């Protein structure tokens, strides 16, 4: 019985790696105004959106269902443009997974950049499906953010 797994997707973007990564480092609070699937975000605990001690509350749509969860930053590696998020704290996550981490990596490949999302999870039992809908959500969100940044809309970096 396999309960743990990883899902990985890599998406090419038009924006520069720096610009895309900096959005997550300094302007993530704007994501609800850019991504169709994000219905709301707010700080649950703490004061700074980008502090590792801050817990954020998210509401979004995955697989056609409104879901909520809490998220905190577990690790930031600015040199490698990598952020690891821990997702927890609501029925949508805690009733299905013992572990749920989402990793963002933005890679500069010279003539273009890519965004790599990794979801690491451990299901509470074998009847739980892998979080494939999350990959669709992250892929769509990546495209929404990239389109916003690439089209030069008002995002100060």
From TrEMBL:
Q: Which SMART domains match?
A: Bet_v_1
Q: Which SUPFAM superfamilies has this protein been placed in?
A: Bet v1-like (SSF55961)
GO terms classed as biological process: defense response
Q: Where is the Bet v I/Major latex protein domain?
A: 2-152
Q: Where are the transmembrane segments?
A: none
Q: Which PANTHER family match?
A: MLP-LIKE PROTEIN 423 (PTHR31907)
Q: What is this protein called?
A: Bet v I/Major latex protein domain-containing protein
Q: Which organism is it from?
A: Trifolium subterraneum (Subterranean clover)
Lineage of source species: Eukaryota, Viridiplantae, Streptophyta, Embryophyta, Tracheophyta
